[in-house]
Specification:
The chain is α+β, with helices and mostly antiparallel strands. It has a single domain, classed as Gamma-B Crystallin, domain 1 (Sandwich), CATH 2.60.20. Helices cover 19% and strands 38% of the residues. The chain has one helix spanning 2-20, and strands spanning 26-32, 36-42, 46-49, 55-59, 64-68, 79-81, 87-89, 97-101. A hairpin with a 3-residue loop joins β1 (26-32) and β2. Residues 1-19 form the signal peptide. Keywords: Signal. Pfam families: MiAMP1 (PF09117).
Length: 102
């Protein structure tokens, strides 16, 4: 009986974990202008530094993204990417970091 309870508890924890990992907004940053070169996908809640600054695409899925001109989301947010609208820019950006609000 104890083993069955442990299995059920583990299954319940899996469901809770899966529910908490719903799709999040994503920022794809590119090394070059026009979405060229290497790219990186940023979707983690909180602060992330941008490895590339050539161009970007924002895929909105309910979370907003506060953009900063300094690393580690220091200072005042320069721009906010909307939680309900995709965005992109084919030319370089000065942003150094993002704070995804979850």
């Amino acid at each position: 009986m104890k083993r069955v309870s442990l299995v059920l508890a583990a299954a319940a924890m899996s469901v809770v974990a899966a529910a908490g990992s719903a799709a999040a907004s994503q920022l794809v940053v590119y090394e070059g202008e026009g979405f060229s070169g290497r790219s990186a996908v940023i979707s983690a809640c909180g602060t992330s530094n941008l490895p590339y600054h050539g161009s970007y695409k924002w895929y909105s899925d309910g979370q907003s993204g506060r953009m900063y001109n300094q690393r580690d989301a220091q200072g005042v947010a320069n721009f906010t990417l909307a939680p309900d609208r995709n965005a992109e820019q084919r030319t370089s950006v000065g942003w150094q970091s993002i704070f995804i609000v979850c």
